Amino acid sequence: MREKYFSLRPQPLEQWIWKQSLPPSAERVFWLHWQEGMRNRNWCSEIPLKQVAVQCALDISSVTRAYQALGKLGLIRRQDPGRDPARPFEQAVAITEVRVPRELLQALNRHPNRHGLEAAARAASSPLVVEAAPAAASTQSATSPESNDAGRRSRDPFEGLSGRERMRALGALLARLSARERRQYDEALRTHQAHLSFDADCQLSAEERGRVLQFLQVVAPLPPAAATAAANAPRPPIPGPRKLSVFELARLRRDLHQLVGIERSATLLREVVWSVEEGALRRFTTLHAVRIALKKIREGAWSRPNRMPPNWSRELAAPALLRGGALAETCRGA
């Protein structure tokens, strides 16, 4: 445990995979890519098909079927980078991205979280502001700046519920409000106020009234002074250099191969990567910038970036695999 490597498997994801009745070979392949993607910190991995078969103690046909089963469930996404520039007559190693299914993400809030020292410290530093109080005391609205700031730091009263469960819980509370209280609640939402006065004969208990007040405090905006300062703040500068991920580089290399062929793609790849990472296209999002560059290349309007250094280059392949002498992947069925 102290000296050897071990893998971490999130319990919700592992239980979801068990319910899908995947074959053991597919589970082995998935957790292998999960481990490599977590180690690379980008959830992408480049492992040749033969190495996957060796590490998982499977044959190549079983690995291919495992990729097909995992792809149908949305657990992985494989990107074909095209031909290997170093081996023009061989297929490059496919890039595998580990993904979490949307079905599991929607149900993730129902699973408990780990309670460690950091969680206990956060809970102690941000206690609940609205506590159980007599009905007469709850009819007074908290209008002081100190109480508003403390309320904004309070926790969400419906934390841990999904979207539909959250709306149902809030609707059940609002249905028991009187007509006057409901008008005040709607006005508080419209004007972004964080307080509400209840009737003396309110049908809600002290705890339920506290939840309604907490919800208003969570959705309330910043204080006017902070909002004015944020509005008058200078615009953020254009982001500095960034790095395209391995998955984005593989997709860009494949698209360039389809547009201009293997011969010209190497030069254009360097120019597009520099423009997206350090040049004029860095002000756009990565996907938007790549699409702009591909459109210009397709229309014949692309030219070498003006400020691009003449000898600029960076490692656009997977260095770990190149140093390890990885074999080319020849299976196209995966």
Quick structural overview:
The protein is mainly α and 334 residues long. The chain contains 15 helices and five strands. Strand 3 and strand 4 form a beta hairpin.
Detailed description of the structure:
This protein is mainly α and about 325 residues long. The chain has 3 domains: about 10-105, Arc Repressor Mutant, subunit A, CATH 1.10.10.10; about 115-220, no CATH class; about 245-310, no CATH class. It is about 50% helix and about 5% strand. The protein is built from 15 helices and 5 strands. α2 crosses α4 and α13 (about 245-275) packs across α14 (about 285-300). The longest helix is centred in the C-terminal third of the chain and has 32 residues, at about 245-275.
Main sheet makeup: 3 strands, antiparallel
Count of all domains? 3
| Helix and strand composition category | mainly alpha
Q: Helical element count?
A: 15
Helix-strand pattern, N to C? HHEHHEEEEHHHHHHHHHHH
Number of strands: 5
Helix content: 40-55%
Task: Please state the CA-atom Rg, rounded to the nearest Å.
Answer: 28 Å
User: What is the terminal-to-terminal distance?
Assistant: 35 Å
